[in-house]
Amino acid sequence: MQLSDPVRFWQHESEYSGSQACKACHQDIYSSQSLSNHARSLRRAGLVPELASSLPFSRFDRVSGFTLTLSDNSRGAIRLEAADAEESSGAVLEWAFGSGTKGITPIGRTNASGWVESRLTWYESLGAIDFTTGASKYDPQNAVEGLGRGLTTEEVVECFGCHTTGYDGHSPAPSADEMGIRCERCHGPGRTHVEAAMNGESVDGSIFNPIALSGFQQAQMCGACHGNPPRDNDFDALALLEQTPHSVRFPSQRIVLSRCFNETFGELACTRCHDPHHDVADEAASFDESCLSCHDTAVRENGTVCPVASANCASCHMPTERVMRHSLFSDHWIRVVR
Ligand code: HEC
Ligand code: HEC
Ligand code: HEC
Ligand code: HEC
Ligand code: HEC
Ligand code: HEC
Ligand code: HEC
């Protein structure tokens, strides 16, 4: 099986049907996926409880000299204002990026209708709003810049491209009423499949099942958003990743550095440890099992066994790193960390 296009993984042609249409026949997957952080990675800003319950919110920004205020605009969005004694500027923040596992960053349009990433973000580790990661790198010269980082349409298109479903790659907004990462973002458009199944016809080949992918192909597929992995003969890229602790944010790029990955010929797919329809919090108990499905001489002849411990494998071999302020990530370069 070829993964010819890691962004559009599927090869079948179909219209989209929306995840609701999958519910009747794939009830369990539908229920867990709907509650997952993938599904909640994009929402209307005004409807996000963490943000809504923090309003109104005001903070003096020492870097810019402006006071920033977030308030409810009562139409599903949030109003952001930057003001000092001389000038003020405003924006309507319509979209909230992030489930809130780490943070929630709103984006929207300024009064001058440019796109802006709010200078304020809600952080899980604080349970509160603080300055958006990277904000201190920008030194706003006027009230508009004080609202947050200005985004080009291309940048906004990229944000949506990784945080929503059925994205057409052009308009800077979700293409349907389907927000967040739902079924058809990973399985491809599903109407043909739904119709075939409803008519009792064969569903063979009507929808893409990533189970057919090798470990590297899956790293590529998930890596469309979780970091594009270099091939095993791209030594420069691999060496660079080893020396860049920040790449810990990109599991698809780190995992290809692991002996577990390289010495098992495609067996170590993301789904060996993750159920793509669940969050990691649901899976904690099963991570050891995944490791022991290889590191147990009863299962794999000549498999190496840990001389140090027999549980909580990831805590030592996949330690967390603080990649950004307020956010920890697990290092998918599985190894003896020295
Ligand atoms: C009317 C019932 C029905 C609906 C609606 C439906 N499916 Fe299916 N689906 C099936 C059946 C039957 C199979 C084959 C047996 C199985 O794997 O459960 C299947 C299989 C699949 C597979 C595995 C395909 C393979 O080749 O291995 C995927 C992926 C899938 N469905 C996704 C979806 C998605 C996404 C939606 C919504 C867009 C959806 N299905 C809607 C009935 C349905
Ligand atoms: C290349 C794909 C990609 C692009 C482009 C992208 N994101 Fe993300 N984003 C991700 C992935 C993957 C995660 C989860 C892992 C992580 O936090 O890095 C994430 C996580 C986040 C989170 C934290 C969510 C949480 O609570 O865990 C926020 C907030 C966020 N993105 C906002 C944005 C904004 C705003 C933009 C545009 C300026 C953007 N993202 C562009 C892929 C992307
Ligand atoms: C369209 C982009 C995209 C694709 C494709 C994608 N992800 Fe994600 N993934 C994200 C974003 C964005 C987040 C952050 C969600 C949030 O918390 O807001 C995320 C979060 C996660 C998480 C953390 C969930 C949690 O518990 O908080 C896991 C695990 C994950 N993805 C695994 C996968 C795997 C495995 C695949 C491939 C089968 C995959 N992802 C494909 C964008 C994507
Ligand atoms: C982040 C990507 C992603 C999303 C979103 C996603 N899936 Fe999947 N799905 C996968 C992967 C990867 C597999 C293959 C699992 C494996 O390798 O064990 C899969 C497998 C399946 C299967 C086949 C299950 C089996 O046991 O053979 C069905 C059916 C399915 N998904 C339905 C859905 C439905 C319905 C939704 C939305 C409610 C959905 N998926 C959302 C990535 C995703
Ligand atoms: C698909 C099989 C597979 C899985 C699953 C797997 N590994 Fe491995 N791992 C290997 C192989 C193969 C090696 C090379 C040494 C050997 O043959 O045992 C290896 C090597 C290692 C090493 C030594 C690394 C080095 O640089 O010398 C550690 C530590 C390790 N694995 C830990 C883990 C942990 C922890 C997990 C679970 C989070 C895990 N592995 C999951 C196959 C696997
Ligand atoms: C050998 C097991 C294993 C494999 C394979 C694996 N992961 Fe993970 N993953 C983990 C563990 C363990 C965690 C940490 C869970 C926790 O926080 O409790 C994790 C966490 C994550 C997170 C949450 C953010 C973070 O860094 O804590 C994302 C996103 C993720 N994995 C994506 C992926 C993707 C994409 C792949 C495939 C390229 C993949 N994982 C392959 C074990 C694995
Ligand atoms: C408390 C930290 C810790 C935990 C927990 C832990 N390990 Fe280790 N592991 C180590 C250290 C340290 C080494 C290196 C020992 C040495 O070189 O003498 C190691 C070595 C290994 C090796 C390489 C062995 C070899 O012969 O090359 C593997 C494989 C491994 N661990 C797998 C696991 C698995 C699987 C688990 C969970 C069942 C686990 N580890 C739990 C710390 C830990």
Please give a quick description of this structure.
This protein is of the alpha+beta class.
Residue runs with pLDDT of under 50 for 5 or more positions? none
Shape by Cα distribution: globular
- Separation, N- and C-terminal Cα atoms: 38 Å
Name the hetero compounds present: heme C
Q: How many helices does DSSP assign?
A: 13
Q: Calculate Rg over CA atoms.
A: 22 Å
Structural features, described:
With 338 residues, the protein is of the alpha+beta class. The chain has two domains: 118 residues; 120 residues, no CATH class. It is built from 13 helices and twelve strands. A hairpin with a 4-residue loop joins strand 6 and strand 7. The structure holds heme C (7 copies). One heme C binds next to helix 1, helix 6 and helix 7.
Q: Layout of SSEs?
A:
Blueprint: H1 20-23, H2 27-35, E1 42-44, H3 49-52, E2 57-60, E3 67-72, E4 78-83, E5 88-97, E6 103-110, E7 115-118, E8 120-123, E9 128-131, H4 143-146, E10 148-151, H5 153-163, H6 183-187, H7 191-198, H8 215-226, H9 235-242, H10 251-255, H11 259-262, H12 287-292, H13 313-317, E11 320-324, E12 327-330
The chain binds heme C (7 copies).
